[in-house]
Amino acid sequence: NFVRARWPDAMPSPGERESLRAAILRALMVAPPGPVVKLLAETFRIIVTADVTRGRCWPDLLPALCTAMQESNLMVGKEQSPVKTANVLIAVHTLLKPYKYFQNPGVEKEAAPPELEAIVKALLEPLLGMLGILAAGTLAAAAAEHTEHVDSAADAAHHDQHQQLGNDALLHTILKCFHHTVAAYMPVALVPS
Fold first, then answer.
1. pLDDT score of 17
2. How far apart are CA 18 and CA 109, in angstroms?
3. Helix (H) and strand (E) counts for the chain?
4. In 10 A of CB 53, how many CB atoms?
5. Are 84 and 29 in contact (CB under 8 A)?
6. CA–CA separation, 147 vs 138, rounded Å?
7. 3-state secondary structure 115-157
8. Using CA atoms, how far apart are residues 137 and 185, in angstroms rounded to an integer?
9. What is the rounded CA–CA span in Å between residue 37 and residue 138?
10. What's the confidence (pLDDT) of residue 137?
């Protein structure tokens, strides 16, 4: 509610805005699953709407998201990184969601907004890397399911199934990010050459 009531007009200085944006983004990246993530994601959405979609004034966001994606626990290992892949994908999804619909529905063939082009250019490669890892995990799990032996331990099967559910949820979020990117526009970075 603090951010909703005060962002961006009641924040006194650009330095204060920058430090608050960075702190909220960092907190979102490392927050444990639960209600805190939802609150931070909503706060992030308010800031993104004001500062990226309308104001185009958060130059550090894309490099920070790209770094977070590369440092996430999916990419470097669960024990080695405090950055949660699910939270990074929530941030990317939140960033892309405003572009799901045309900005000007009256125009027959509207070009992708420049900020969407910049987002896709910066985040496409790390998103494709995550997609490849998650898709490979899903394919491996499907293959293992077909070749599973009767004498396998129930605990190991339950752990693998739980891990696969998490993998599938991440894969679903990445696919939603791609959907929001191309639902109304086709950014140049995604056009096959």
1. 81
2. 36
3. 8, 0
4. 17
5. yes
6. 14
7. HHHHHHHHHHHHHHHHHHHHHHHHHHHHHHHHCCCCCCCHHHH
8. 30
9. 25
10. 84
Amino acid occupying residue 6: R
Q: What gap in Å lies between CA 73 and CA 31, rounded to an integer?
A: 13
> What does the pLDDT look like over 141-163, one tens digit per residue?
778 776 755 445 444 555 566 67
Q: Is 56 left (phi over 0), alpha (psi -120 to 50) or beta?
A: left
Read off the amino acid at residue 32: P
In this predicted model, what pLDDT tens digit does every residue of 71-115 receive, in sequence order? 999 999 877 899 999 999 999 999 998 888 766 667 667 778 888
The residues, any chain, with a CB within 8 Å of residue 67's CB and separated by 6 or more, are: none
Q: What is the DSSP letter of 31?
A: P
Q: Which residues contact 33 (CB under 8 A, 6 or more apart)?
A: 84, 86
pTM for this structure? Answer: 0.82
CA 36 to chain centroid: 16
Q: How far apart are CA 29 and CA 71, in angstroms?
A: 10
DSSP state for residue 60 in the 8-state scheme: T
154-182 and 114-146 helices, crossing angle to 10°: 150
Do residues 111 and 61 lie in contact, with contact meaning Cβ atoms separated by under 8 Å?
A: no
Q: Which residue has the tokens 């939603």?
A: 176
Question: What is the rounded end-to-end Cα distance, in angstroms, of the chain?
Answer: 45
